[in-house]
Amino acid sequence: MEKKDYKDMDLSAYFIGPKGENADLFKELTEKLINEHVGYRQNFNSDDENSISESEKITPEFNNAVVNMKETLSELSRKMRGGSIPWTTAGRYLAQMDNETLMPAILAYNFAILWNGNGVAWAGSPASTLMEEEVGQDLAKLNGYKKNGWGYVATDGSIANVSALWMARNVASIPFAVKEVCPELVEGKSEWELQNMSVKECLDLLDKTGDKKNDVKSRSARSGQNLQKLGKWLVPSTMHYSWQKALDITGVGEDNLIVLPVDDHYRVDTDKLESIIQENVDKHIPILGVVAVVGSTEEGAVDHVDKFLKIRDKFRKQGVDFVVHVDAAYGGYGRTVYIDENGEFMPYDQLEDAFKKYGIFTENNQFLKKDVYNAYKAIGETDSVTIDPHKMGYVPYDAGGLAIADTRMKDTLTYYAPYAFQEGVAVPASIGQFTLEGSKAAGSAAAVWTVNRMIPLNISGYGRLVARTLFAARRFADLFDGQKFEVKGKTIVSHVVYEPDYNMIDWVYKEEGNNSLKSMNDLTQALFEYTSSSKGGDLYNLDLLTSDSNFSPETYGDAPVKFIESLGIDGSEYHTEGKMEILRASMMSPWIYDDKSFDYWAPRITKAIQGKFELISEHENIL
Amino acid sequence: MEKKDYKDMDLSAYFIGPKGENADLFKELTEKLINEHVGYRQNFNSDDENSISESEKITPEFNNAVVNMKETLSELSRKMRGGSIPWTTAGRYLAQMDNETLMPAILAYNFAILWNGNGVAWAGSPASTLMEEEVGQDLAKLNGYKKNGWGYVATDGSIANVSALWMARNVASIPFAVKEVCPELVEGKSEWELQNMSVKECLDLLDKTGDKKNDVKSRSARSGQNLQKLGKWLVPSTMHYSWQKALDITGVGEDNLIVLPVDDHYRVDTDKLESIIQENVDKHIPILGVVAVVGSTEEGAVDHVDKFLKIRDKFRKQGVDFVVHVDAAYGGYGRTVYIDENGEFMPYDQLEDAFKKYGIFTENNQFLKKDVYNAYKAIGETDSVTIDPHKMGYVPYDAGGLAIADTRMKDTLTYYAPYAFQEGVAVPASIGQFTLEGSKAAGSAAAVWTVNRMIPLNISGYGRLVARTLFAARRFADLFDGQKFEVKGKTIVSHVVYEPDYNMIDWVYKEEGNNSLKSMNDLTQALFEYTSSSKGGDLYNLDLLTSDSNFSPETYGDAPVKFIESLGIDGSEYHTEGKMEILRASMMSPWIYDDKSFDYWAPRITKAIQGKFELISEHENIL
């Protein structure tokens, strides 16, 4: 192929397949890559003699070791077969944000393991270090960060979140450090002014310190000083638990956590966000930063990033500033749907044509919500983003990601320069200087690099893949909303909790005519138990797997009340019961979105649910 | 095999081999494991139809995608071949702590990637979660932590170090939190007494808080309070740079870092350690903890862990207490040499017999230093250890490790209980609650589990493997100490900087009769440049690779002066030059230790060095 026309490539070729449909191709490519690696070993100083002779290979000691290895690997295989989650099924795993991963990512990762590069520094893995730099640029650009952006492949979203707060903390502390080391640069500024400089202002200030830069850094938050002056960190109640960890480990402290209430769509209530900030400002308490979640862990909800930024603009006018970080660990790849092949975020009114051109379904296109579009669009104006290739990038674990809008943010984590020189050429300096991780498996960078080169981060590549799942979520949400089951004369109806923003569905089961929240919770939880190893028995024998969660007043406030009342249940029961139990499915499977596959899977899933309710009716005292 | 007799197993079977000697076996086992995985996919609800049909596979779109995948993988292969470090060579890579990794570890890791388990929680990867628990116990026991120990497979040593400080910080803050929430439990205790409780006392105190435990935790260091009351963190000057990171991120702060001077053997000067602690105590400044390094990054030096503990015992008598953490990321596996098949640390006087029994070389056995033995023995009495399977465990990246003596330490990082119940059985709770990492590739736990089951962490398994490298270091140190090269009438002599404690050698090159440190530095650095891509050209065409470092007064104080003077150089030049340049080699290769292989490699390495000096003489103006 001369020019690659990505839209004419069948994404189905990129997976081993739920039934191993492409297993032969996978084996062929695996063997090819192994051979290429072995050839490298053999021909490095090709005349060097072998270290293991043929005669050694036929000794009893060698054979003992081979037997030991085979036996241990058999045991491993047995354990993995018995103790893995069958998320490679096309249609029977409606649960966590996991599915089969991209074949080229697996091949690249496995290949990289043979080389065992340590991507911590160019000298430990020249190839993967450069790949990671490219991938970092990919992630930055995907999020709309232009030429000053930077990114890296983090172990996971938790570490990316922790690192984002670490950077925000160190950046925000620069004005205090400058005041100590080069007071003339901040002369006349009040403490409040020092606390309310933007990321850019802080970094420009650091740049002005010239040869005192490292002295300033040593007086930044890394010294342990001023941590309690930096202000509050605001995170939605839908947050991942890594935010608690982040506040703990960084010493910013959970005392500085403010949890933002969400609306009945599980997005941050931006009026309340504004009033919470205002209350703090009124008390002269600074805001270190605000987190928007794009693709919340339990709901897939997409916060109004655009409104967050508008609120920041408003506060800037009164001299108040703070970081905006986006936790898009799960939802980040959703942005690819809106990006054209030139890397531009498309105007809303061109989407429908673009979708037609790229074969993305347009009928019943309710998943194209304007507010979700606006949120994605606004990400480019934020300061940093967590985005995990090992979630919607369909790359194996571990491959999280962090992107920052201004590459200088990372330099506050180290005394060293961002580039080193090797062979007279600038190469990325030890990435370990800018990350919590020291050693780094080359595999994760190699895997993400490979798939990014094959499947562009725009509508022609990942956009088409993500769209499959958005469409699947749309269709199954429609199926589940109002679906009825008859069991021993009783009618059970399922209800979808909210319109999906992304590819996740939350839903509940309620007995018709029984308006008790407790009953609904019991029934929903029972279905979960019978669709998991809890009561469903061996994982491998299940014909449907789901995951569950529950929304409690402690975490979610009154967010679920409107939904509960819409079912005819008294809203006050939410508080007396203390929770609403839900089923939760990330519709990540790329195999259930089109007419043919939906028509195949919908009745099978329905039948499986019907069977569970019959079992529940038989064994549990709740139906 | 009924009873496995590990000592009769040939370790050479466990590697693909420097020349791919066991590549056929590797391919056979790879294919077997892939088939077993594909069989699982096919037979999960075996009657479900394929998602990719044979007719789809012959469409142009499918073919386009296959071509795209093959082309991209070819590019990946080209980049990896051109940009990897040839550390799989048996004898020509004398540099970083990297070598080929164990075949079963590669197989297990690659296999696990197919299942893509997320070891964050039992529900994401039942098999690997249980494996990680076993491996954690392995690491704890290897370090002499008995039944209360705990460990996990961290991303790497940096994260393990950060986590150790995080735990130490949170544990040390418990007394202050208790004073706030349950003051009656610490009634009458002074601030100094609260600052000087042992780990056990802190954790016992937390246990006494009963149902207020989470309230106490919320007032611990995780709140952001009291961080600056916890005291100083003492780390040897040979420390890995992750310790700066650890002080930065945890908010303990670099202001609380005290760098411990080392002696001319690059081990902490324990007299100075004692006096530094005493000086702080005299000023009423508490000590949060002291780090001992076992296998330092640049020297492989082993600190006197036993003396650290004796010093702690002395201070305990005056009411002063602190954590002792061991950074054995690199050196930790050295302990396996001293552990018998029952898991007991062997008495010193039984070692020689044991070594004979297990085929470990005993002639010229200078590597059996009593002080190194004592240091390893004492680790069991410390509080926590960093130990990386991806270094001397010969497991691919990422597989670092942390072990703690008292499992309750980890519970200070979370509000949650350590165990959950699934199917009525206690299973490990979400490990993500206790670690910086959230998502976790099942592969690293699976790989370490597999090799630990095959190659016991005692003298019958890893002990024999580590011993190969200790012996190689011994032999090459002897070769390099005093080795002479003649170039254009000049004689160059190499000198080993110190007697190795472990498997690392540091050495320099000096022109005979030229007693200038600058000349020695220039010559040593030139040899590095010609044995690396810096001036050696393409990595793949090098016949010898080394790594370098330098010791500067800023970091190392006067540690190198005695050695410099022993070469006839004026010691003051160390300060005027500002550094001593060294070559540095981890002798991790398992293929160069015995008579036959040493006799094969020694002349080849010597010839390569001779060739480099000829090039240097020709091209550089320093000979």
Notes on the protein architecture:
Chains A, B: InterPro entries: GrpII_AminoAcid_Decarb, PyrdxlP-dep_de-COase, PyrdxlP-dep_Trfase, PyrdxlP-dep_Trfase_major, TyrDC_C. Chains A, B: One of its GO terms (molecular function) is aromatic-L-amino-acid decarboxylase activity. Chains A, B: Its cofactor is pyridoxal 5'-phosphate. 2 copies of one chain form a homodimer. The first copy, chain A, has 623 residues and is α/β, with parallel strands linked by helices. Among the domains of chain A are: 138-173 and 229-428, Type I PLP-dependent aspartate aminotransferase-like (Major domain) (Aspartate Aminotransferase, domain 2); 467-619, Aspartate Aminotransferase, domain 1, CATH 3.90.1150. The first copy, chain A, contains 22 helices and 15 strands. In chain A, helix 6 crosses helix 8 (199-207), helix 11 (270-282) packs parallel to helix 12 and helix 18 (517-530) packs across helix 22 (595-619). The interface between A and B is large, with 169 and 170 residues.
